[in-house]
Design a protein that fits this description.
By secondary structure, the protein is an alpha/beta fold. The protein is built from eleven helices and eight strands.
Length: 263
């Protein structure tokens, strides 16, 4: 079956991007969908949130430079059907080095192509740095679907407009004409705050077909889980965060026809 590459991007930090990447991946894996998380952030938050120690030489730094195979970087996690390509601090250097290469925006796409063709994964989820630098642009050029994690606060709407413009530029320039905005995930939602509801309503008004119905709540448990190296399902299996990410995964599986690949 075909592999769908999702990138979870937002140039703003602290919007629940990494939390969404690992918990969505874990929710897919729970449903026996073979899933790979690609940690593209030099801070390696997705790596540590899945309980994996940083290992020298296991990030995509080498393959992006044309050294070594992407398959050498695959790292199993404690959860069946879920694998990881870790990040480490050397990825910070590739931001500068990529700019000096030919087809520098397409390096990640070519690195991931053998993985896509292998049939080993039904979903690849890329977690990007909190910026629209070289790594994030490469992830957009490599993805089929962009999932935008958007915090329920006023300034988030400004960031949404910026990233949508970037997508249009990449498509119009022929870098990735097939890239689609797969959906907007509203994170850190607090039903007690009027502004949160207003932001959700505004996104619904502008992108009614794109916003997911599931709202990811602001919970202490979701914030704590990464420090224990666990997805929310392992840390707080019956809590509000687990319930929300399971519901979101069902929406995404249905929207993109992911079900039934990994039993």
């Amino acid at each position: 079956m075909a592999c769908t590459v999702f990138t979870i991007a937002n140039q703003k930090g602290g919007v629940g991007k990494t939390t969404t990447a690992i918990n969505l991946a874990a929710a897919f894996a729970e449903q026996k969908i073979h899933t790979l998380v690609v940690d593209l952030d030099p801070q390696a938050n997705a790596t540590s949130a899945l309980g994996i120690e940083k290992q020298e030489g296991k990030s995509l730094y080498g393959p992006l430079r044309g050294e070594g195979s992407v398959f050498e970087m695959l790292t199993p996690t404690a959860w069946p059907h879920l694998a990881l390509i870790p990040a480490e601090v050397d990825l910070a250097a590739i931001e500068i080095e990529l700019a000096q290469q030919e087809n520098y925006l397409l390096r990640l796409r070519s690195v991931l192509e053998p993985l896509r063709a292998s049939g080993g994964y039904r979903a690849i989820i890329i977690d990007c740095p909190p910026s629209l630098g070289m790594l994030s642009m490469n992830s957009l050029a490599a993805a089929d679907q962009l999932l935008i994690a958007l915090q329920c606060e006023y300034m988030a709407l400004e960031g949404l407009g910026q990233i949508l413009k970037v997508v249009d530029r990449l498509k119009n320039a022929g870098i990735n004409p097939a890239l689609e905005v797969g959906g907007v995930i509203m994170t850190m939602y607090d039903s007690r705050i009027n502004l949160a509801k207003q932001v959700v309503d505004e996104v619904k008004q502008h992108l009614p077909e794109k916003i997911f119905k599931t709202l990811i709540p602001r919970t202490v448990r979701l914030s704590e889980a990464p420090s224990f190296g666990k997805p929310i399902f392992a840390y707080d299996p019956t809590g509000a965060g687990s319930t929300a990410y399971r519901a979101l995964s069902h929406e995404i599986i249905k929207r993109f026809g992911l079900k039934g690949s990994g039993a």
